[in-house]
Write a structure and sequence with these properties.
The chain is an alpha/beta fold. Helix content is about 30%, strand content about 20%. The structure holds nicotinamide-adenine-dinucleotide and zinc ion (2 copies).
Length: about 400
């Protein structure tokens, strides 16, 4: 089959690789009809290079049609239309029972000290082949699937794999008081969607980015926007808009690759060129995240407010302003999205009209063969790329 294969820093190619096969009774094989490129894939493309192996198949936002199931999967049949959550979870362990599927105790990657295995996300997360491919092996398939109805196009449902539950959890964890305000940093797919969800739920949303067409798109959706290029002090601008207090809640949908953090940016670049064993330690043990947006979030949130991190961070020694966090009495919540936990909340917004605008959410659709181009324009923010869908 054809699959998007990682070869090196900023070097991904569509190669011919062996078809996946059933290996465990709880596996299924799914033929992928639509799959997406995520901001999290951009970390693999460049800064998480030390954790990648040449030959890794990337991708964790796939949907398609079940081809084959193992004997242990009794609730799926060939022909079923399914979306795969980006994490692999069993549905019957202590963590899954609590809706913490990203901590699933059946698939936890214990030798790396990490949570549930993820599709296409390095040896840190179990080295499972990803979904930017013609076929995908789905472990724990009895639970690692979301059945979706026939009829509407793939665009309607594909974001259930990641964008929608991640954005939903970002808003839920932000704990925005009724009628309150949320400052949303980042207007990539995650920040754009969390802004839409917060607005849909009746909150006041102030969104920040640096890319003109992303800012413009949010403005068109009725969201108050700030262009970080036009302000020396974004937290101050947010305070001015919120009676001098700051926003009730802040969502950070930017994460470890925030622009405007030169020192950490250099460390990330260094980690990309050092020998793997050394650079894994640099990434793992040194604070190599670019914390610019997290710092802004801490200053933009009002006293007693909540910060919800959906942007991914990876450093182990990131310096945090504990004095300010403690004195302002800030709640900090974060983590990978527990996809299956939120599906029942989100599904009505996909089957009863399209209030979040998912059908027109993607800016680019292209055949899998053109995925390397898709990565390039998404990373460089060229050609108006905000969300790129691939069709194997
Ligand atoms: N928690 C989860 O489960 C989960 C799931 C998916 C994605 N993510 C993470 O969410 C983050 C966003 O992903 P995405 O798909 O939206 O990708 P993205 O990379 O397109 O989005 C990041 C956005 O942040 C903006 N940005 C960068 N620096 C900024 C700054 N200083 N101020 C304001 N905005 C700034 C960029 O212009 C971009 O629009 C990534 O870190 C990704 O790994 C987390
Ligand atoms: Zn993703
Ligand atoms: Zn589990």
């Amino acid at each position: 089959m054809k699959a998007l294969v990682w070869h090196g820093k900023r070097d991904v190619r569509v190669d011919n690789v062996p078809d996946p096969t059933i290996q465990e009774p709880t596996d299924a094989i799914v033929r992928i009809t639509t799959t997406a490129i995520c901001g999290s894939d951009l970390h693999l493309y460049e800064v998480l290079t030390p954790f990648m192996e040449e030959g890794d198949i990337i991708g964790h936002e796939p949907m398609g049609i079940v081809e084959e199931v193992g004997p242990g999967v009794t609730n799926l049949s060939p022909g079923d239309r399914v979306v795969m959550p980006f994490q692999i979870s069993c549905g019957h362990c202590f963590m899954c029972d609590q809706g913490l599927q990203t901590q699933c105790e059946t698939t936890q990657v214990r030798d790396q000290g990490m949570g549930a295995a993820l599709f296409g996300y390095t040896k840190l997360y179990g080295e499972v082949a990803g979904g930017q491919a013609e076929y995908l092996r789905v472990p724990q398939a009895q639970y690692t699937h979301i059945k979706v109805p026939e009829g509407p196009p793939d665009e309607r449902f594909v974001y259930l794999s990641d964008v929608l539950p991640t954005s939903w959890q970002a808003v839920a964890y932000a704990d925005i008081p009724e009628g309150g305000s949320v400052a949303n940093f980042g207007l990539g797919p995650i920040g754009d969607m969390s802004s839409r969800i917060a607005k849909h739920l009746g909150c006041r949303v102030i969104a920040v980015d640096i890319v003109p067409e992303r800012i413009e798109r949010a403005r068109r959706n009725g969201i108050e926007v700030l262009d970080a290029n036009d302000h020396d002090d974004i937290p101050e601008a947010i305070k001015e808009m919120t009676d001098g207090r700051g926003a009730d809640s802040v969502i950070d949908a930017v994460g470890m690759e925030a622009h405007g953090s030169p020192a950490a940016g250099l460390a990330q670049q260094m980690a990309g060129i050092l020998p793997d064993a050394v650079s894994q330690r640099v990434m793992n043990e040194a604070g190599t995240d670019r914390l610019n947006v997290l710092y802004q979030a801490i200053h933009a949130v009002r006293r007693g407010g909540t910060i919800s991190l959906s942007g991914v961070y990876g450093g182990q020694a990131d310096p945090l302003p504990m004095l300010t966090l403690f004195d302002k009495q800030i709640q900090l919540r974060m983590g990978q999205a527990n996809v299956k936990r939120w599906v029942d909340d989100i599904m009505p917004l996909l089957t009863d009209g399209d209030p979040l605008g998912v059908e027109s959410f993607a800016t680019h659709r292209m055949p899998l063969d053109e995925a390397p181009h898709g990565y390039e324009i998404f990373q460089k923010k060229e050609d108006g790329a905000i969300k790129v869908l691939l069709e194997p």
